[in-house]
């Protein structure tokens, strides 16, 4: 298969899927190396950009997904009569930060860091698909461990967790990081 045909085939598979597809799976489907998959995905991303497509290619850890650009969200919501999601509360952002930077973590660890009960917030974040159960800790009671999801990466425009901003050293820096995360999340909600 010629490279240009392969780029189009990748686009078709990603479009039909609607979900992220791993590099390994694309490698199996097209019988090419994972390195070649990444090169073809880069070509697809470039083609979408050059053609000023309403779609963009997202890389989420070791997966790729086609998505609409955020600038078209308003029209998509109107077309599907989607109600605006409520933004995350400051408590939810705090819990999300604790999980993202320390995962996998237990609910009691989150509560210890925050100093308040967070059962409701954890439940909400699980329902929104931003965190998920990652197993159980081998201690008495076997508490659940939580970690972030691919949806978390997508909502905050991150390829992987290494792109998280550094942990602030002062309260002023903490405010700056919080504002940055809120702005990114607001952009995704619109």
CATH fold topology of the largest domain: Arc Repressor Mutant, subunit A
Low-pLDDT regions: none
Distance between the termini: 40 Å
**H/E series:** HEHHEEHHHHEEHH
CATH architecture call of the largest domain: Orthogonal Bundle
Q: Taking Cα atoms only, what radius of gyration do you get, to the nearest Å?
A: 19 Å
Give the overall shape, derived from the CA principal axes: globular
Description:
The protein has 190 residues and is of the alpha+beta class. It folds into 2 domains: 3-74, Winged helix-like DNA-binding domain superfamily/Winged helix DNA-binding domain (Arc Repressor Mutant, subunit A); 90-189, Arc Repressor Mutant, subunit A, CATH 1.10.10. Helix content is 54%, strand content 13%. It contains 9 helices and 5 strands. The strands form 2 sheets. The chain has a 3-stranded antiparallel β-sheet with strand order 1-3-2. A hairpin with a 2-residue loop joins β2 and β3 (63-68). The longest helix is centred in the last third of the chain and has 19 residues, at 171-189. It is globular, with a radius of gyration of 19 Å. The chain starts with a helix and ends with a helix.
How would you describe this structure in keywords?
single chain; 190 residues; alpha+beta; Arc Repressor Mutant, subunit A; 2 domains; 3-stranded antiparallel sheet; two-stranded antiparallel sheet; 5 strands; globular
């Amino acid at each position: 298969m010629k490279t240009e045909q392969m780029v189009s085939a990748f686009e078709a598979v990603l479009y039909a899927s609607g979900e992220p597809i791993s590099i390994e799976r694309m490698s199996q489907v097209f019988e090419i190396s994972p390195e070649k998959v990444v090169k073809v995905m880069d070509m697809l991303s470039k083609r979408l950009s050059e053609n000023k497509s309403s779609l963009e290619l997202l890389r989420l850890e070791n997966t790729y997904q086609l998505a609409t650009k955020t600038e078209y969200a308003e029209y998509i919501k109107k077309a599907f009569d989607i109600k605006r999601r409520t933004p995350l509360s400051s408590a939810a952002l705090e819990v999300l930060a604790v999980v993202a930077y320390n995962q996998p973590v237990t609910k009691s660890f989150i509560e210890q860091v925050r100093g308040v009960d967070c059962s409701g917030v954890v439940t909400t974040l699980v329902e929104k698909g931003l965190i998920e159960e990652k197993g159980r800790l081998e201690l008495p009671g076997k508490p659940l461990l939580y970690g972030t999801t691919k949806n978390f990466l997508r909502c905050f425009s991150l390829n992987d967790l290494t792109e998280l901003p550094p942990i602030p050293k002062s309260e002023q820096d903490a405010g700056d990081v919080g504002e940055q995360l809120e702005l990114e999340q607001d952009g995704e909600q619109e």
